[in-house]
Hints:
CATH architecture: Orthogonal Bundle
Distance between the termini: 32 Å
CATH topology: MetI-like fold
CATH class: Mainly Alpha
Number of domains: 1
Strand content: under 5%
Number of helices: 10
Radius of gyration: 22 Å
Amino acid sequence: MSPGTRIRIVTIALVLLAWEALAWSGLVFQGVVPSSLTVLASAARQLSEGEFYGHLWRSSQEIGLGFVIGSVVGIAVGTAMGLWVFFGGAVQPFIHVLAPTPKIVFLPVLMILFGVDMGSKIAMGAISAFFPVVVTSHEAIRLVPQVLIHVGRSFQASRRQMITKIYFPAMLPAVTTGMRLGLGVAIIGTLLAEIKLSNRGLGFLAIQQYDAFRIPDLYAVLLLIFSLAVAANMLIGRLSRRLNRRSSANH
């Protein structure tokens, strides 16, 4: 077991112990901070029920489609900003202004444009994922080593060959980092949209538990969301490392 894994296990154990100590200390109302065992039992119960998977499937569709759309458009726009100076100069000020803006402010407009069903949630996920990806893609293409560009030009590579053989492999590490950030904010944006107005999804399920003051069930849903987000992030990280190794081997 690596030192990093041991540190993570010890950290989780300490957090659970602190949670249990607080729950049984009497300092706070036990209904607000229930025992972690109660929360874990609620999570296990929800995993055994078919209703949870319906909400999970809806959120997975909305987050997945939004993330893919936002990432593809972000990579394309970021690459174009780096390759064409005029386009980059025209678009960059708007990107820098809108990137730190809380994306939830766009939700009313998205609901008008795409309706209150899945469309607005997918659009919210796409907007949320777009900005981290476009910023990292733009920075990545600007930092491509000039020696690689000169080599490609010396072999009279076409624009398409320069992008696919020179730029993209060099950009890959930074772009995948931006995608991991984009996934996180896409999850947040989509779930916030579900909390605001929806009848399906994990965000809707969480706010339903809150409205009924079923606090252990609410924490269980949040715990499951957190676990799924960590698993998705680890999957992207693993794919990133594999692609980086393949790119290095090709070079």
